Amino acid sequence: MTRRADRLFQIAELLRGRRLTTAQQLADWLSVSPRTVYRDVRDLQLSGVPIEGEAGIGYRLNRNASLPPLTFTAEELAALATGARMLETWGGARFASGARSALAKIASAMPADKRTALDRLPVFAPSFHIDETFCAKVDAIHQAIDTRHVVSFGYRDRLGAHSQRRVWPLGLVYWGGRWTIGAWCELREDFRTFDIARMGDIVVHEQFPDMEGRRIADYMRIAEAPMR
């Protein structure tokens, strides 16, 4: 589901059974502008969702209204299942648990024929060759990113040189078979990319601040620049 599609669904759910809710309240809850809320509500109304009210006063969804069920094409189901199976193998325990749970929820809401197609999808990601230590590192970094904690580790680069690093982990980046972290490196005082397979034991330290110019969006702009 795209971010906007998810937001539209959230708006409808937030309005269900409530008294009038203002666009400003919705904007605060969803971390968007009131203008975005106005546009989303209008689009929902045009698509047939029975939202009552108007801009400047407030909105509500009829208590008896039902949202249409989420449906997927065969190609969409295959894409979701493939991604989930890859995360189960490559993503560490946290991603694996989330992937299994999400796929089970999707399957339970599907008609029998589509559940069968999902079960028979001939795409697999065997886990027998995955190092448990590697998965534990992915989990530790994932947690540190979520809680914005500095981590330190020994690192071996592609030439075999060793160094000790303290970094602000900003995001996990998957490069087709290779997990890396995008981070702000205190040693280099710049963004760096670290291959998780080349990292030693991870030690978690204090929290780092949410600083303008040192966010994941800033890292991605630099990381993607040569590709443009």
TrEMBL record:
<dbReference type="InterPro" id="IPR036388">
    <property type="entry name" value="WH-like_DNA-bd_sf"/>
</dbReference>
<dbReference type="InterPro" id="IPR001034">
    <property type="entry name" value="DeoR_HTH"/>
</dbReference>
<protein>
    <submittedName>
        <fullName>DNA-binding transcriptional regulator</fullName>
    </submittedName>
</protein>
<dbReference type="GO" id="GO:0003677">
    <property type="term" value="F:DNA binding"/>
</dbReference>
<dbReference type="InterPro" id="IPR013196">
    <property type="entry name" value="HTH_11"/>
</dbReference>
<dbReference type="InterPro" id="IPR026881">
    <property type="entry name" value="WYL_dom"/>
</dbReference>
<dbReference type="InterPro" id="IPR036390">
    <property type="entry name" value="WH_DNA-bd_sf"/>
</dbReference>
<dbReference type="Pfam" id="PF08279">
    <property type="entry name" value="HTH_11"/>
</dbReference>
<dbReference type="InterPro" id="IPR051534">
    <property type="entry name" value="CBASS_pafABC_assoc_protein"/>
</dbReference>
<dbReference type="Pfam" id="PF13280">
    <property type="entry name" value="WYL"/>
</dbReference>
<keyword id="KW-0238">DNA-binding</keyword>
<feature type="domain" description="HTH deoR-type">
    <location>
        <begin position="4"/>
        <end position="59"/>
    </location>
</feature>
<dbReference type="GO" id="GO:0003700">
    <property type="term" value="F:DNA-binding transcription factor activity"/>
</dbReference>
<keyword id="KW-0804">Transcription</keyword>
<keyword id="KW-0805">Transcription regulation</keyword>
